[in-house]
Amino acid sequence: MQLFKYPYLVQNEILNHTEFSDLFMLSFVSKKTKKLIQSSSQMQRFKTVNTIRYDHRSARTYVCIPFYYFHDNILKIAKRDNTKNNYFQLNVSGKIVDFSRVYKHRKYIPVASYQPDGFKSLIESIHNYLLDFFGDSVEFYWEADNYKKPIPQLENVTALLHLRHGLTDADVLNMRRFENFISSSPVLKCIDVDIFNMREPLNPESKFYQAEYIESFQSNPTLPSVLHYFQGRQAFLKWWKCDTRDVIEFVNKWKSEEALHKLEHIKIENYNDEFPQNETLDAIGAQHIDLAKKPPTHILPKVYFDIAFQKEAHTDPIASYTYVVRRTDNRVASISIDDGIFSFGVWDKTEEEFLRIVD
């Protein structure tokens, strides 16, 4: 390789002006090249990487590094186009892989290709290489934008689903395929979905409800029925219309510790109706802080935060004079009702401890 003809200082300077994507591809060339990159000052750049994402779309997957306001794609994974002959081969974790390059976003990106039945083995080889190259200090995420194929079971990978579905009447959710996607994938950390054409309810035991965070925009609050079966920590639900009785039932379930054991925060936006404040507060047995005092503000780090595209890393603050108490352990949850917005935040405090922090 021509690079090794130059003195080390020149090699290092060349690498300093090389894109992440090119450095990554160069590291496949040989063990010697990989060692050179790892011993160069470039490793200081790589040490700033704490997250790697697999962005999986219908026909391709990008391996990318999230930075503020953008994802830096370092590798594309796509089905091999047998009509082209511009491929070259590199060794990835002991597997010989066909590579090409594509110009996108003003730079060249390496493309690792697979035959129709080779996607799984290629992904495993690439992931093993990433684990070896970056070590265990990096968090790995796999985000799918469809439910055609389950998210692969890979070491130390957190699964995410970002789905927009049902924007037309003909776009009906295929329940059998969707349930198979959910059951065959790892338990999802974050689900962000717009679902308007779900015709059947999910199984109450579905792994869908085990996600740590669910953000859902749906026309029918029971399809899916997050409020009834959620087992995670945080949720943001946007509904066209809801029955206040569902919210009352949800709060009373939490108060009795019948369900929602891990819940930290939930927000519901009801677009077409307002929540009747007095009726709801009376039905859930809400208690009130003295209006002469200042209530504490409930706020938590979000379960999942994408630094590239999300602006706020914390849940929406709740500073409310109303709260409820869970009977079994005397834990407190703040409640806010503001027209069509219902907010619920669980404190890690008993009622006595909670009232001590009221100003």
From TrEMBL:
<feature type="domain" description="F-box">
    <location>
        <begin position="1"/>
        <end position="49"/>
    </location>
</feature>
<dbReference type="Pfam" id="PF00646">
    <property type="entry name" value="F-box"/>
</dbReference>
<dbReference type="InterPro" id="IPR001810">
    <property type="entry name" value="F-box_dom"/>
</dbReference>
<protein>
    <recommendedName>
        <fullName>F-box domain-containing protein</fullName>
    </recommendedName>
</protein>
